[in-house]
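Our platform keeps sequence and structure together, in a single record for each protein. This encoding replaces a full spatial description with a residue-level series of whole-number codes. We quote a single record here, exactly as it is kept in our systems:
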Amino acid sequence: MAKDTLDILAQDEHLIQSFADLNALKQQGARTVISRAKGAYVYDSDGNELIDGIGGLWCVNIGHGNDEMIEAISNQLKTLDYYSTFYNFTHPAAAALADKIAQLAPGHLNAVYFGNSGSVANDSAIRMLHHYNIRKGKPEKKLVLSRHGAYHGSTHLAMAMTTPGYSEGWHAASELVHHLRSPHYWREGGDMTEAEFLDALIDDLTQSIERIGAENICAFIAEPIQGAGGVVTAPAGYHKRAWQVCQANDIKYVADEVVTAFGRLGHFFASEDVFDMVPDVITTAKGLTSGYQPLSATIVSDDIHEVISGPDGMFLHGMTYSGHPAAAAAGLTNIAIMEREEIPKRVQTTGKQFENNLRGLTDIEMVGEVRGSHFMMGVEFVKDRDTKEGHPAEVQVGLKVARACQKRGLIARQLGNVLILSPTLIMDEPMIDRIEAILRDAITEVAAGL
């Protein structure tokens, strides 16, 4: 395996990167080689130390290079490297992790289906609800309500549930999905108060159900905080009211906690503890293993499980690596570390410090809004703060700020005019202060050059 940066990049010409301008990556200096990692830091192939400000990709919650995790995965591979959970088979690691997740999940969510990504978790949720409704004699009840600004994955169905902008130039199962209004008050609220905007969002949901017909809708899917759609937090009370509307119309509520679960907002699951409602389905991935192994979970209610596990039926859904022993061992160890070190509880303090530090960046004229919660934050840059006019796409403001951050030792994720921060959950106060200082210097430098 190559170690020299030029040799690695030569080999990398055969790799198709995800969510990238593949043509731009052909240019010299466009790619960064991350060669090792430890704790809250990663190191590029030239030896530069970088704060991992995006936590791998919303996922390395306990930090990189945790010896306990590595040992648990290795020991599992020595004992049972692989066996499927198809047919009548199970194994100790998958069984134990399913049991632990059921203990942590809120309310009546006690049955767990394992996949290997958030996209698969969300696809699985809809497939399971389709199967559920067919078994209940309601095969027409199959449409899905999603929202503009949502991100639910990049498989064919998950992409259809994702905000339409991500589907440009691609096909998706769009005939199954109806998109509701974006819950972004700062951008979409106009002259309304936040309370009036909340009412408008719920009216949009209600009217959409009336127009489409509740008898045709199987689910409403929503992230507690929209992630790759720009880190958008809906008005306070939105999720509980939307859940109540769904309950009244026999529509299952799917909470996409692929990002928000396992400590990012200060709790193992955010739906009940933060947003005061218990959905019918929770999907999760990323922080479930802190990225050490690919694993996702679709957690369903007792009601759903009772129907799909009833007599005279087959559950014809499965992935080769569902509940992979090494991935399940990683999930169990990850949760044990989080519980022992009280990481979610610590995030309730450190995450708020991070959030408050970043919110202070609004004293820079180019910063239009800082939004999000705890270790899930977005900074949006504007050309004119009064009108909220954004910079033209060709200016690439977010990319320029991200590069200025990396030059100073911080990896941040650009998304158009938005910079996203989702660092590891082991950040301490000096690291948090350093991130804010780097961001301030980088934004100021870019603003001066526009």
